[in-house]
Design a protein that fits this description.
mainly alpha
Length: about 100
Amino acid sequence: MELGINKKGGNRHLPTISGFLSFLIALIALAGLNVALLIKEKVFPGVFIVQLPILGFFLGVIGLFTRSRSRLYAIWGLSLCIFLLIFTLLMVVSSLSINYKP
């Protein structure tokens, strides 16, 4: 019996990086949203609320189509980006329900 050697393909590094980038972008967007909420800024930076979570969402979806060992960061990044997008949607809907002139 011979011992088989598994050679890792060269195209496996791109999806692994995309899953990790999705997780990293989601953490940066979450930190930016927290800072904007803590300093009580009247105009939220759109980069942290919309653009970064959408980019992280697409990178997370790309990262899901990888081997099983690299899906962890993609799942975490995807779930955090979905949370940020749902939070933004609920924040906008609830702010539209405020009646300024009773």
